[in-house]
Amino acid sequence: AARTRAFTAAYVHAADQLQAVYDAVLAALEKGETLRDFVQRTENILTRPWHRETVFRTNVLSSYGAGHWEQAQQMRALRPYARYSAVMDGRTRPAHARLHGLVLPLNHPFWKTYWPPWDYNCRCAAITLGQGEMESQGLKVSTETAGLPTAAKNFQSPAAGESWQPEYDKYAPELGAALQQRVERAIYD
Prior knowledge:
The chain is mainly alpha-helical. About 50% of the residues lie in helices and about 5% in strands. The chain has one domain. The chain contains seven helices and three strands, in the order αααβαβαβαα. It has a three-stranded antiparallel beta sheet with strand order 2-1-3. Helix 1 runs antiparallel to helix 2 and helix 2 crosses helix 3. The protein is elongated, with a radius of gyration of 20 Å.
């Protein structure tokens, strides 16, 4: 009984922390809060600065990326192409730099995996283009997409359509069911 009580207390504590981080990300999105605001809300939960920044950047930019993907699809008749743009500074990873400047139609399968952000802490962007912009900037549709970098495991581009889902069945049945219930309550309440 003591072991069960301790396990339950630890689980509830972890779920409460997850809820607090979720609420902080949601507040950042809804209120336009900054990383500094997020840090103030979560510094007692996420104690490593790099982890706080990764959680903030990944969640906020994934949300923005999903919205940008939806807008791009709505405007596809007028702006049927996208150009991949990496930041190209000292923090840009080689895999992201390799994609810089790549131009493909929005309906190309490439974008299902590589619509930014497609990896943790990805700072890249996809810039939609119309035919006139393609011509005025001297851009051509890329023909080479072989040898693309591998996307991060358990990370999904906003263009993929569905978000990552936990594997509830890898946990003990009672724990998996409780976790699923808690996650669904956090998302839908």
